[in-house]
Hints:
The chain has helices at residues 13-18, 22-33, 40-62, 72-85, 90-109, 165-178, 205-222, 233-236, 246-262, 268-297, 319-328, 332-338, 348-353; strands spanning 117-123, 133-141, 145-151, 183-188, 198-203, 305-307, 312-316, 358-362, 367-369. The chain is α+β, with helices and mostly antiparallel strands.
Amino acid sequence: MKTAADFIRPSSLAAIAQCPGRPTMEAAVVNLEGDQPDSPEASMGHRGHEIIGRNIECWRLSQEPGGLGKGWDDIIAQAADEATAAGMSSWDAWCVRFCLEFARDAIQKYGIEADNVLVEHRMGMADLGMAGGTADLILVVPFKLVIVIDWKLGYVEQQEAADNDQLQAYGVSASEEFKTKAVLVYVVTPRAEKEYRVTAGKFDAKALEESACWTRAVVARAQSPNPELAPDYSACVYCRAVRQCPAVKEHLVNTQEALAVLGTPATPEAWGDAIGAAKLAEKWGEGWKEAGKAHLMSGGQANGFKLGAGRSIESVANVPEAVAKLREAGMEAEALEAASISAGKLTPAARAVIESYITTKTSAPSLVASKRA
């Protein structure tokens, strides 16, 4: 039986700060319906994390006395082969390579000894009121500095390390565990635009104490007897309970009624509320669509609807390399088409140049209207 405490996690702190009742609702829904399966993007991210972590650990162990002393070039090539063998696209494999190259550069830049490279390190957070979390990579300069690195391999918006509540919580725990007064955090997002792929933040003792106080307050509100449900798009977008949450339904109805009475929003704040409610409605509707698909795929019936066939989707992976290949071949127009991550309009000659960068996936079955009652 799940409890709210099981859903109070470092990665959800920002959402819980906005909606303290979220962990309680998530626990109730998971106990009732079971947990949701990972999305394809999440599964890809998990595989990528495993490959990155395994190969950094391989490098670390090889540096021990009597080890093979593997170099980073071999480690990175090995990881890329593993990603391909695991069925990841060439773009996914490039993301794995990017993260490993960053790990290599950070280890070298800060002079980190192999023994002080910690992969998938479990952070104890009892002092913050949470069971804990797992940091992707921690590098330690004993008694001086601890570096916390977080890989974001999915299709996510840019991440600012200095504003990342998860990493601040990790920083608090890391500074206590490793007895340092300064923590440096990095968020590495390979799919972001180039200037946003790596962001950093540094926290001194004062900033860490402020973060600890804020985190304890957020956790305490979530653990109160009747925590408030405060729906908002940013708080609800990854919530497991968004489809069943009564506060979400009430929020959408109230917004609709307000717009019907007041008409077009007249202020930036009102526009923000309207757009946020619209995006939340999309998320709520998408949740019910996915539930409906699962119902039909398991043999259930739904008057007026049936499952359609999945579509074959082609895309260009590892866009920078693909574009460079096309430009080397003198195909500037096709290079611009490839830069849009689309493969549908490429000429046969251009396809031949970057065939290894083109991936094909079949989308999940769609919901389509059925004439049968």
